[in-house]
Every structure is written in C-alpha cells, then in structure tokens.
Amino acid sequence: MRSLSKSLYTRGLQCHKSLYLDRHRPELRSEPAPELEALWASGHKVGDFARMLFPGGVVVPFDGLTKEEQLAKTREEIARGTNAIYEATFVYDNVFVKADLLVRSRGSFDLYEVKSSTSVKEHYWDDVAIQYYVLSGSGIPMNKAYLVHINNSYVRNGDIVPEEFFVLQDITGVVKEKQAAIPDTLAEMRDMLRGEVPGIDIGPHCDDPYECDFKDHCWAHVPEHSVFSLRGRGIDPWELYRQGVVRLDDVPLDALNLMQRMQAEYFLDQKSHADPEKVREFLARIRYPLCFLDFETFGSAIPMFDGTRPYQQVPFQYSLHRIDAAGKEANHFEYLAAPDADPREELAEKLLGEIPEGACVLVYNIAFERRVLKELGEFLPGIRKRLSAVADGMIDLMEPFRRRDIYHWKMNGSYSLKSVLPVLVPEMTYKGLEISDGAMASEAYFTMGEISDPAERSRLRKALLEYCRQDTLGLVRLLEKLRSMAGAGS
Ligand code: SF4
Fold first, then answer.
1. Once rounded to an integer, what is the mean pLDDT over residues 340-366?
2. What tens digit of pLDDT does each residue of 372-415 get?
3. pLDDT-derived band of residue 489, with 50, 70 and 90 as boundaries?
4. Is-contact 315 344, C-beta < 8 A?
C-alpha cells in the first residue's frame, strides 16, 4: 500500500493528477517562487510562536531524525506523560502526519493546527481531519480539534501575548463528520496512483485552494495571449475555455464587456490609442514643486514593532525625485533603513525634510502610498498633520492608464507600472536588476538583517537602492512621455 502524508492527501484532494505527478513525475514540478518560499518561512515562524500557547512542551524535530525515530520519540513522550508535544508524529493506514500541537486534556488529547492566515478557510478542515484520522487510528484518545489562526486586529504593545495574538476555533464537529469518508478517499487515491496519469484538464482547481506547482507542465498548451489574459470582471474565461476557445484571437468579441472587448480588439489589431485632450486635463493638475515618491514596505505575520498589526505594511525605504520648478532638473533623495530597527520615525522625518510644504506628489497607485502615510501619522501623532498634508498633495499617475486615456495592446489590459513603463518608456527596463519587484525588495531587506557578511549586506543594499530609484525615475520619464504625447510643455 502506497504511503501518503498529510500534504499529499490535501494535494490529492485538490487534484488527483497533481498527486500522481508528484509521485511519478516530480521532475515536472516548478521551482517555488521566492514569494512562496518567504510565505512558508513565515508560516514556520508562526507555527513555532504558537507553541507559546502551551509552553514547556517537547518538540519532535523533522530535521535530524528519521521517520522511525520521530515516531519513537512521540511514543516516548506520550508514555512519559508530556503535556504538550510539538510536531508529534504518527503513522496509520500508511499515512504519515506531524501535528503542530498535541496537548493533553483530561485523559485525552486536543489537536491544534496552526495557520498563518487571519481567517479560517474551509480547506483547512481536511488538513485537520486527516490528522485526526491518523491520530485516532494510532490509538490516541482524541478529544477536540482546533484551528489556530492570527487575530488580524491584534496590535502589538510590548511583548506579544500569544492568547490575544491567536484565535482558536473549535472545529471538532466538522472534523468528526469528515472521518467516515477518509478511508474511501485514500483508497481512491491509491488506486489512481497505480494506474496511468489521470486525464484531468486544467480548471479553476489549478489555483484553488493553492496554486499548483505543475502548472508549467499542464498549462503548456495555453499561449501567452489567451482567454486567461482578459483583465477585469466580465466573462468567465473558463466558460470560453470549456467551449474550446483558448487563444485571445479566437474570443467572440460580442461576449465581452466594454473593457475586455477593447483589450481583445486592440490585441487583434495590435493598435494603441491616446486621448490628448484627457491627458492634457490630467496634466493641468500637476504643479511645482513636484515630487515623485515610491515606498517599499514589508509586512510580517508577527508584528515586529509596537503599534503595528499582523501583516501591516511597514515602510523601510523610499525613493524621491524632486523638481523644484518648471524646466529644472530632477534631484534624487532616498532612504533605506538599517535592518532590525523600527524605521518609521527616521523615515518620516527625513521624508518631511525633503518634500516641500504644498508640493505636488506624483505616485503610482495612490491608495497604497496614502495608507502608508496614514499609518505613519497614527504612529507619530506629532507629525500627523504634515504627513497628511503630503497625502493631500498626491496625484495618481496611474489615473490616465486606469481610465484607458492611453492604451497600448502590449499592456495586456493591465495598468500596473510594470505593464505601462516598458511600453511607453522602453529604456526604463527592470531587466538586469537584481531586485525587480516589491516582494523581492522586502525579502532582500529581511535577508539583510539575517546575514553578517558586510560585503553581502552592502550588495543587497545597493540592489535595493537601485530598484527603488528606478521606480521613481520611471515616473519622471513617464510624465515626460505624457507631456510629449499631449503636446504639453513642462
Ligand atoms: S496544473 Fe491543474 S490539472 Fe495540472 S496537476 Fe495541477 S491542478 Fe491538476
């Protein structure tokens, strides 16, 4: 009988083919994206931290012990009467599981599954149900099953209080209900694994509940410009796919809403469009002194600083280009915090020293930059008014692109800076930069805090500064481009 594990079981629930490929063709699996690896690392930290809910327990480590040794150590701790076991390990029905927290409770045990999310999702139930099945089958007298997730309204004030930081949800009822179906589900999976690769086509299940790591393989027949490239709400691309429509060229235009139709038509004709009158109206609002601002932020599951919530985006870097008067050159200013220290006060003070009062501040995606300033103001009430004046002076350079006053088929229906810039200002490329997006930037900032080699730290620092500078220089060039398209002067 094929051995399975908790993660293989949940993989199989999402898609039999995914389980099959994992067991028989693992070489087809894609490398995990750096963001995903960062998410896993963060999940591990949260899992470790949750042990403080039941302190004084014993861990059964995965690394350094064979499976047999992990099983033996778990048995030992149970026999010894240990109150809390972290990563307790069991096998039953040839399914291997490690339970995040197993806690003694009046002659039986409670099972706790820790998630780094801020809410409970239904697919977590199966994750707990298979553990409950294995533990019960191993002869462990089971009492309750809980999901432990993060309380998103928790605000750090000094040491984190685990009982307030986590929310415990009793899901014993639903977990017990799921027990009866598990043997059949396991048998189906094992049957499937003995046969040929299942003939399962791609579908919404490829991303639900998790993005499948075999997508590069299964989606190879989907071209770059396909029904799945259609942006915004409108027709369900799966409806078209099921009708045999895959390429964007083949989409029936009548089935699309206005925005999607524009995307498809412009793609077919490879055309672009600009409405100089609307662009001029937008440009008329821009005045001097003129700043171009971009923040880089990180959000950690476990808040690092007082006054922050889980996953709150804390700014650690900004780039600012400033043009003091029409016809003048842009001056560049920047800030990058040293890792580990709370950067907010220093960053805010420096920023306010560089943005003149009453300045017009151009950003790309105003909601994000405004939220950063608002949260800085909440933390620093002494300068709240000045920060909010900066936010009031902001104009979103994304506006004309979101309205499609300017549109090019190569933008693929998107108005993100990473889609717009290469089309309108091709010389402003991110190619060749070590850091090329915000997720990589925040990862690099964390890495800087973890490494001690000064040369490596300085290399990352340089890469971060280069990336953020590129973002605001891109805005400077984009504005120049808009002005030339609209026939407007500076
Ligand atoms: S990409 Fe989709 S169809 Fe292919 S294995 Fe993954 S979930 Fe299944």
1. 96
2. 999 999 999 999 999 999 999 999 999 999 999 999 999 999 99
3. low
4. yes
Please check whether the domain covering 4-193 is classified as CATH 3.40.50: no
Distance CA 10, CA 15 (A): 9
What are the CA-CA distances from residue 395 to residues 98, 197, 339, 356, 391 (Å)? 51, 54, 31, 15, 9
Nearest CA to ligand 1 atom 4: 218
Domain ranges, ordered by start, for the chain: 4-193, 221-270, 278-486
- Protein residues with CB under 6 Å of any ligand 1 atom: 15, 17-18, 21, 200, 202, 205-206, 212, 214-215, 218
Whether the domain at 4-193 and the domain at 278-486 fall into the same CATH topology: no
Protein residue with its CA nearest to atom 7 in ligand 1:
206
The CATH classification number of 278-486 equals 3.30.420.10
Q: Among the listed ranges 60-64, 135-139, 287-291, 317-321, which one has the minimum average pLDDT value?
A: 60-64
Which atom of ligand 1 lies closest to the CA of 219?
Answer: 1
Tokens of 264: 């498809």
Give the model's pLDDT for residue 33: 82
If residue 469 lies in a helix (H) or strand (E), which one and from where to where? helix 454-486
Distance separating alpha carbons of residues 35 and 18, to the nearest angstrom: 21
Structure tokens at 61: 């480590």
Cα 356 to chain centroid distance, Å, stands at 34
